[in-house]
Design a protein that fits this description.
Ubiquitin C-terminal Hydrolase UCH-l3, cytoplasm, EC 3.4.19.12, Papain-like_cys_pep_sf, UCH_AS, Peptidase_C12_UCH_sf
């Protein structure tokens, strides 16, 4: 049996904006690029901002660090709010789509959608 496949959604602001527009999001909300994290480049990001999508490769080193951090934070009693929507990506090449789902699902109170 073949493993599940996912058609990748290009991590491109124009493509992502068009995608959510087809799902009913009003055009007043859009995706844009962030060119860097220094104050000058961040000042170029249109406001308001609901989410930042960071796409990066997952390595063994990252996974080890993530596990250590999770254990450290749990040991300190830090938890995750039940209001945070999270799904784990289990299908390859779905990071753009999963990131987009997280951005929209965690900002439903701020985003505007057309009538169904």
């Amino acid at each position: 049996m073949d493993s599940p496949r996912w058609l990748p959604l290009e991590s491109n602001p124009e493509v992502m904006t068009k995608f959510v527009s087809c799902l009913g999001m009003k055009p007043s909300w859009q995706f844009g690029d962030v060119y860097g994290l220094d104050p000058e480049l961040l000042s170029m990001v249109p406001r308001p901002v609901c989410a930042v999508l960071l796409l990066f490769p997952v390595t063994e080193k990252y996974e080890a660090f993530k596990q250590e951090e999770e254990e450290r934070l749990k040991g300190q009693g830090q938890g995750v709010s039940p209001d945070v929507y999270f799904i784990k990506q289990t299908i390859g090449n779905a990071c753009g789509t999963i990131g987009l789902i997280h951005a929209v699902a965690n900002n439903q109170a701020h985003l505007q959608f057309g009538e169904c």
